[in-house]
Amino acid sequence: MIARPVDRPVQIFGGAPLRIEDVVALARGQRRAALSEAAGFRAGISAGADFLDRLLAEDGVVYGVTTGYGDSCTVVIPPELLGELPHHLYTYHGCGLGRFLDPEETRAVLAARLASLCVGMSGVSLALLEGLTALLQHDILPLIPAEGSVGASGDLTPLSYVAAVLCGEREVLYQGLRQPAAQALAAAGISPLRLRPKEGLAIMNGTAVMTALACLAWDRADYLCRLATRLTAYNVVASAGNAHHFDATLFAAKPHPGQTQVAARLRADLHHEQPARNEQRLQDRYSLRCAPHVIGVLQDALPFLRQLIETELNSANDNPLVDAERGQILHGGHFYGGHIAFAMDAMKNAVANLADLLDRQLALLVDTRFNHGLPANLSAASGSRAAINHGLKALQISVSAWTAEALKQTMPASVFSRSTECHNQDKVSMGTIAARDCLRVIELTEQVAAAMLIAARQGMALRQQQAAQPLLQGAPQAMLDDLEARIALVEEDRALDADLLHLLDAIRTRHWSLYAD
What is the per-residue burial (b if ≥16 Cβ within 10 Å, else e) of 170-187? Predict the structure, then answer.
């Protein structure tokens, strides 16, 4: 369980739109949630619930309120059973399997669902919004199975676990312990809800799980983009490569903004004004020379992907929507997660290409045919002991394994739509599967990056032994100094798994600040 100091900044729901960074901060426990006290916001929420009540009193017909769900929309619910319908919805959707979402992912889900409902077009009560806020405030985390959503009608099955917990059912993680939801709510002084008409549908019929995972994926992909650039700089130097491949005039001739930005970062790291060090080869191999063209694809995609994710995050994405001002019930399909599915399929492709790029760079570094004078497998062993030491030989094999698995995961999930639920849900987004796939690709690429940090520490030390002056300065050298303090030079063979785990933690906690531009 993370520390949750009382002086954390407050994230207000029902005010300004949320950014990805807001969701990430909430997910990491760096902010505490609060519902807006603004009179206009609260009046707008109440107006939607009140309009729905008036409509029901007048025998109005509303999908999922006076009818069954999905293909059962033609089934009319007897008035005396309307109050039970929302509870049946989350009950029969309690069929999720797979791993549970981790605490960060679960907090992000709660934040994403709350943000959507705070748009004010879902016909829910203030009590429901306060219940979701309380789960975040007290860090009562529903145990949400990761598998079982096709991404339309939204994330029904995983979000059923949020609805059930609000009503005191199923299980949660609270104060580090798995326990019944009713027990955790009681300990926090929270009363279970009795859902009003449509509130079960409003919680479940949306894209909160895929959107939450997408926010976390975007944040991690952005850091990997920067880290891959810094690692490339190290690998150019360690390989005695040519910094002039990143010349500003050269990149002005093909001015993709992200690609140009990556090249500029590499120029700054490598002090491009210095003479080229490599006189053995006019042009470096593609994994070095074309690094901006690979990393730049993700760099260029990130702003566009942000727009897709943040639009979804701040949208009303359940069905039907309630327009209290105009007195309308709007039946539509905003639960469809197509934009998130596309964003995640695109992102995992671009991130997997980072893993592939770094894998190829490592293959050059460990091979005496291509590394311009470094020892085989970057082993720092000397004398007679060099014969029995193997340096980074096995690490390079593991990097290739992780890269191959990442590349294997790039098949787009969104093209695997299945017709479900009596052909009512006959075209679905698979957005949540795409988001989970993307996070797996990111995890594997982070593992590759951790291995490359070891290779950078090793390769730079070995190259420095051959140089008469420092090879780097400024931020790249400061990061290298930190790496040297964290990881001993591999002179005698040793297991590297502890080092890799240590570096993975540093990557995921953003230990190194990378590029201020």
Answer: bbbbbeeeebebbebbee
